[in-house]
Amino acid sequence: MLKQTKGIHHITAIVGNPQENVDFYAGVLGMRMVKKTVNFDDPGTYHLYFGDESGSPGSIITFFPWPDAYQGRIGSGQVGITTYVVPEGSIEFWELRLSKFNIEFEKATRFGEEYLEFNDPHGLHLELVARKEGKNSEWSFGGVPADKAVKGFGGAVLLTAKPDKTMKLLEEVMGLKKIAEEGNFIRFKSNSDIGNLIDIKKTIMPIGKMGVGTVHHLAWRANDFDDHKDWREHIGSFGYGVTPFTDRQYFDAIYFREEGGILFEVATDPPGFAHDESKETMGSKLMLPPWLEEKREIMEKTLLPAVPRVLEEDI
């Protein structure tokens, strides 16, 4: 039987100043900062997580904010556009909101859907699309009511150096189905109602350069820890080099790079973000893994501010 992922678990990107990052994703887009921790591989840097009210899989975007890092270049081997889905009937609200904060956007149509395309402050390419699928977020913040709030990912546009190889992986390894082709794009769908649509751009772009304003990796969903073990064996059986299991505190992870150059992860849905702090208080304090607790005092003194706040003026 063909193994199938439900779709996107999370997307992780590299950005600049952490407060600018929080101001945009919480202050402008109204998302909840569900976790403030550090990059376990580089503890002097935050790892910030944003999503719906509980950080549901399929809603989570995570960031490594490196204020002094060089600017990247979006290109082949990367996620080209991160797509967010909002409730039906809310696009006009988002047009007005982006305009209020002086965020330039363009309208585009793809596969019969209208998108608002724009960049975040550090150069990540984003878009909003309205769909009925997926439950509404229950989170309201900074002038974004729950009935207009970002539900989570609509999907992503992938830029690959080998479109045929990447499309073969999506179908044969990850279990997505090809559902449409239009112009320069081919669309694939997973069996979930959020984070479920992947568009492959057929044109091969120049190779991307990792840095500020680029996506580091895209993570697919594994149902649980047993399913995760099955995924590692399954992906390896197709000849991909898969990493050992890594405990990321809020999910377990494995990684592999597909032939078109994109770094993929498979992450477990459990345990989620409320196991080390309550759902009500998530994101309100710096959370550290046990092996870094002894360094809390110095970290809290040296890390730059990163606090969700209601924005009263244009940014």
TrEMBL record:
PROSITE patterns: VOC
Keyword Oxidoreductase on entry: yes
Signal peptide: none
Key words of the record: Dioxygenase, Oxidoreductase
GO molecular function terms attached to this record: dioxygenase activity
Residue stretches making up the VOC domain: 7-131, 152-269
Bilayer-crossing regions: none
Protein name: Ring-cleaving dioxygenase
